Amino acid sequence: MTKVKEVVIKEAEINNNCPECFNQDMQLTFFQKHRVSRWYYQITAEVTHQMVCNTCHSTIYPVKWTDDIERTFEYYQKMVTPEKKGLKLSRLSFLLIILLLILAGVLYYLFYSGII
User: Fold this and answer.
1) CA torsion through residues 63, 66, 72, 75, sign
2) Which residue windows are transmembrane per the record (predicted)?
3) Which domain, by its residues, includes 17?
4) Would 74 be classed as within a structural domain?
């Protein structure tokens, strides 16, 4: 069963006005998705974001963004550097690969020595 983790890449305090409560205390967070399984650990290239007002605790969706918020978002989006996407096998995967190679070697030896 694969689990998806969202790892925080960058957090930024924004001084723009909240569209809900008009206070200047908002936080912009960028996440990168990581998939974790018993067999592998995968870093994806998918980056998501979330903007929350620290005063009224509401999530600010892009539909309600003002021009100032959009410019600030674009600025911070350019600053985000996600990790390179990749795949790392777990110890269980390596153990299974080694066991399969040993089994293939034993079968090859038994077949060509005339025992099988």
Assistant:
1) positive
2) 92-111
3) 3-90
4) yes
